[in-house]
Amino acid sequence: MLKLGLDGFLVPLSDEHQGEFIATRSQRLAWLTGFGGSAGIAIVMADNAAIFVDGRYTLQVNEQVDTNVFVPQHLAETPPDKWLQNTAQLGGKIGFDPWLHTPTGINKFYEACAAVGAELIPVSENQVDAVWLDQPPRPLGPVFAHPESFAGQTSPEKRRLIIDCLVATGTDVAVITAPESIAWLLNIRGCDVSNSPLALSYAVIEATGYVDWYIDPRKVLGPAQQALDKHVKVIPPDRFEERLTAIGRAGQTVRIDTLTVPEAVRLCLAAAGADIIMDTDPCRLPKAKKNQTEISGMRNAHIRDGVALTSFLAWLSAEAPKGNVSEISAATKLLEFRATGEYFRGLSFETISGSGPNGAIVHYRVTTDTDRNLQPGDLYLVDSGAQYLDGTTDVTRTIFIKGTDNVPEEVREHFTRVLKGHIAIANAKFPVGTNGGQIDAIARLALWEIGLDYDHGTGHGVGSYLCVHEGPQRISKMSDRVSLEPGMVLSNEPGYYKEGAYGIRIENLVVVKEVDELDADTERNMMCFETITLAPIDRTLIYVNLLSDDERKWLNDYHVQVRDTLSPLVTADVRAWLKDVTGPI
Predict the structure, then answer these.
(1) HEC states along 215-275?
(2) Looking at the predicted structure, is the pLDDT value of residue 66 above 70?
(3) What was the pLDDT predicted at 63?
(4) Stated pTM of the model
């Protein structure tokens, strides 16, 4: 920093593609601070530093980070741009790597610096890279074709959708930097990052139909290369900036998504004189609206996943009360059950396996230092998911580890109120055009009645053998105006977390669909959710008197579906256990 005359530097948890899961090489925030969560940013000044995390990580950050060096800040209470505005000095120079920030994300830091007479400066050398002497190399995982039997559409058919969009808006080219969009568009998958089948790359798609794909050619061999048609050209990524400059010099109209592209892309295009249109990634919405092949695949994947999770829960019910099952061994056992499933390709995220107070850490990641044995009387929260060739899963169950003591009344009430919120979403009917922000509150009402809430969204989008967190669809207090449309897959996961004691979350995945039968006096077309996750919900935690007749009916009907679907597919002992735990209440 001193060499460059900088007074501060921004260290986000991101890579050049703004992905959730990033390669080891890009784990700069973790290397610098020790923080292992999935979202955060640090600001390093000459004399002090701060790390900013959201409500999911307020406990975790204090456990992992030297708070004498990096002072933890809550993102909502002390936004990093406001902290910088209060910390930067007149004439100060704050550096950032423009490949690690989006135009939308970095704009608030530009404004914060300008407000106090400081300057925000893009730098070509990342300051963490300059001191990270054993930084891993860039990933070089092979690319493989994703067949139409799973994708439901050919790549040319998908490209036609994007081309039509560009032509309709008078746009010459679109720059796409999100690997999941490129994976969807070209019907390819990769293995450059953990948990998501992505190949890190960039793409430029022209209104003429041609795609320049900027990826290391060593990744695209054999069947993957043969699956590409003549309209797709593989180009080394070090020529990407050259192409951006050429777009600008040609005076072309170029579409970029300022929520996903790096600021470096915007700066390069602007310097070259491009006519920039700031709009959403054109692949984002069609990717989110799954076709019938993808929806069928998701259903099938959830059946196999339900077999694995139910077999695990049966095993857990027998073994955990003995006190010999740890958080790590439980997660390992669950992986063993999943790994036997057809089309299994790995986890969709690292399993959250938290017992007792660890379950209160929303995105807890067990380590050998934090691992604890599940004890009778504990609440055990397990949030897990898998990647299959035909779908992606994400499911959470909260389990009471049986012993001599009964479930405390407080726990039963809190669990039941979370369940009421879950059922409210599962049963929701809403008019066409409704967005997730408009229905988020119904998942919280039962908790709000007694002054409780949770600091995360109620639902996120899920990809089809892609990212477990997918936009633009979501159910959240912070949801934008993106309507929920048929084919979108979302999670339904209200929760409650008592610090130092326990955590509760119940999560199923749902598919948005049209209501099959409307009443004669219905004035508007209506939408609803189809639950596709299949696994029993722990009835011992339910305070039945808190449930309405309709809520009890939903739970009983759901358990009948789980039992009828999974029983023919599990072993005899699991079948007997499943019959016992899915009886009516």
Answers:
(1) CCHHHCCHHHHHHCCCCEEEECHHHHHHHHHHHHHCCCEEEECCCCCCHHHHHHHHHCCCE
(2) yes
(3) 87
(4) 0.92
